[in-house]
Queue: 3 jobs
Job 1
Amino acid sequence: MDLAAATAFAALTALGARVSLHLPFTPVPVTGQVFSVLLAGAVLGPRLGLVSQAEYLAAGAAGLPVFAHGGGPAAMLGPTGGYLVGFPLAALVVGLCAERLGDRGWRLALGCLCGALVVHISGAAWFGVWASIVRGSAALSAVLSQSLLPFLAVDVVKALAAAAAAPGLRRRLWAA
């Protein structure tokens, strides 16, 4: 049951990549992945949340088109690679926060916000590296305006939605 649940959340994250809105000023799309990652940590806990996202990355690294930009190593080394690599750590952080702070209400929302922050730090850091390699320039203002600032508000909403959905989903999943 545990591995099946982790695999289901890996699949949910892959589906979240299909929900994608491409913005004209950045190669980083708005996707449903962050919601799935946060929900995985909140529902599965730290260990299985991390496993679910490691499964997701393994599927993409193996070439399955589960990322917003396809699959394979090239997708992982592209402008969104840092976000992808941050997913397992974010699920772990959300799960740990849920265990230590509480798995309901504002405490879970805080945990989900911390997980979203992990994704954004990882994503922006890699985007800066990618931009300096591919574009020859990684001015901090450009990195922030293309990899962080446009996504903060929508990911706050995703974090709050994941925190709201997690308790009921957790009850249903583990009652089965």
Job 2
Amino acid sequence: MILGLDTASVAGNKNVDWRKAKAGGVSFAFLRSNYGDQQDTAFAREWPRVLEAGITRGAYLYLRHPRGGGKIKAPEPEAQAHAMVKTIGGVQPSDFPPTVDVEFSGDGRAETGLSARQCLDRVQRCVGALRNIYGCAPLLYTSARVWRDDLANLDAPDLMDCPLWLARYPFKPGPAKLGAALDGVAAPPIPAPRAADPDDWWFHQYQGDATSAPGFPSGNVDLNRFNPLVGAFEPLVRPGEGARARWVRDRLNGTTLADFQSQHGLVPDGVIGPRTFAYLAWQSKP
């Protein structure tokens, strides 16, 4: 099991010890860079510390929509994307590409005063802006429930190559569930437009508001696990391969996974863990 976490300033974490987190089994971490166009107050402090601890890191943008039935406006999606880029600054090839957080607070989409199509359009505009800036597909944080209840299970062909980070909570908030507690935990449901492949997910947020996580003496975090992929990935496509295998081949561009790993200073073990995934995700699709 490859464990990670995500957090934001609102979680109330003080005196985070990222090295202790890594020693406790944390391999990757996502930090909120922006709430809409507003920079998260903890990001500048924690972002370099995650890297220094040797943890694979990623930043996410909480994409804001109108609220109060549409009376409370939100920045345009492109403005939020550009604010995120400004907040993050330089990125490393070992970092995850940016993530767009697709969820709806309060009473869900009803809060926005917008249709499902209009909300999806805002997501697509934000993703498109980040894709144009970084030259690769951003990650999407969402859930099958959000896609069903708020986005009416609408298709989005331009988002199909965005790696999925999905939320589903088999555990309630409280003491962090780690190690053997995860044995037998089911995969998260896949949003309907991509549900044909039940393995089409890379990250699973499995516990929200977890306390007493390694390295976090106060506050709380959301806990996640990574879905590794194992294979030689020679250039020849194999019939019946899943969506993630096709995603990998598109980014290997004719080389083997072991060669790709060696070229980027990674252990050529044929396993796509968080670090190899990060390097692959920056590769543009042909």
Job 3
Amino acid sequence: MSFYHTNEGVSEYIKMAEGYDGRELVAILSEHVDTNARILELGMGPGVDLDLLDKHFAVTGSDYSRQFLDRYRTTHPDADLVQLDAITLKIDRSFDAIYSNKVLHHLEDDDLQKSIQRQHDVLNPHGVVMHSFWYGDRLEEHAGMKFHYHNEGFLTKMFSTHFRILQLVRYTEMKKNDSVLLLARRAEIS
């Protein structure tokens, strides 16, 4: 995924994503998580959703791309940011919620399963995850990156071992019902 590790790729992504944010997703998350809860955003990119989350929560932004983190720090020098791989989640803190907006679709199925396990591990008891995905059952590639489209059945299968699904709904971002939102609470595993 070298696209996100070059200034040119990052600039192209920022231009492409202009006008889109997770405002509606953050509003839904706010219904399930207390104000000032500790939230980890996976794959913050340019920080558009991080700014929205920061209005309600104690938020930590993360990205695998140093370029995104460095750009955000130029305008938000006091932001709590960490360079983090969404698969291994090597972090020594715990959170009340983990949020991502169209990030985990880059992961192969086995890596997504590893990420889900790690998310469970870094969440506090009763913590929640909220992730959005492109809806479907296909694979696309762009600039060397893979985009896995997922449906409700696949997401239920992937998350239900570690989480109790609270919401799994389709919504519209660019085209009618092109996206799916998963909101789930951490399950106790015996």
